[in-house]
Amino acid sequence: MQEVLFSDARSTRLAAVDRRLTDVIALSATRQDRLSPAHQLVLSMLGNRTYDHQSRAAYTQLLAAFGSLENLSVAPAQSVMPHIAAVNFADIKAARIPAALRQIRAAGDDLDMTFLACLPVSVALSWLGSIKGVGRKVAAAVLNFSTLQMPALVLDSHHLRVCARLRIIPEHYSAERAYDLLMPLLPAHWTAADIESHHVKIKILGQQVCHHAQPKCPVCPVRALCPSAGVMAQTHTDSALARAEMQNVTEPAVLTGTVSGRQEDTESGAIHARCR
Ligand code: SF4
Q1: 165 Cβ closer than 6 Å to some ligand 1 atom
Q2: What angle do CA 223, 225, 226 make, to 5 degrees?
Q3: Does the beta carbon of 226 sit less than 6 angstroms from any atom of ligand 1?
Q4: Which of 96, 117, 124, 228 gets the highest tally of CB atoms within 10 A of its CB?
Q5: 275 Cβ closer than 6 Å to some ligand 1 atom
Q6: Same domain for 211 and 124?
């Protein structure tokens, strides 16, 4: 009974945070350029531990170099490597991405993964997770961001950090454990698109305000809902800058293409508000 109450409280807080972020972050309504599941898989594998603009550039280079995912699937790692050198763990990814594509082809003769849409989300996640190098984050991205548009929450490091500080999940949970805890807490009426926009909003909050080292609690739009507000060491004193950044979050011109793109550029500090 106590666990149910805790669950209800976390679910209520999660929904309230989402509503608050909806008030301050302007997201475009729909993504226009969804990739096929196989293409999304490649992009998301490239994106592990890598800034989004770098993985996107590497993905574009791969396609230009090999012409198709079929060609990429039979490419040796040493020929893939030069095209993705800018992403982290490029040597590992150069081997794993073609191998993953070969594994998919071996299972179904081609790279058509649309059959996943016919499976329960949990089964589809397990199928994707059986591919070497595909963790829960990449698997969820394939289901949610691609043309499949299935209800699976993508949990990146920003999402895990923010939800831990909001006391919705315990600290240091893996993406897998956090996913299993968070998914049942999402409002039952949320669609795949709602789940995707929730991911984008939490990620923006993590990138712009709830930084790893110096969360800007004084200007955080969800501080009234956050048990960690003001608890953590506050060394960030440039509240004027922080406020300006949050105003950028609400600026539609800056966020044009938010859900229709695929990347968020965290390096420059500018909000492109695009998701992988
Ligand atoms: S109040 Fe502080 S700790 Fe809580 S979400 Fe906002 S920035 Fe993060």
Answers
A1: yes
A2: 65
A3: yes
A4: 124
A5: no
A6: no
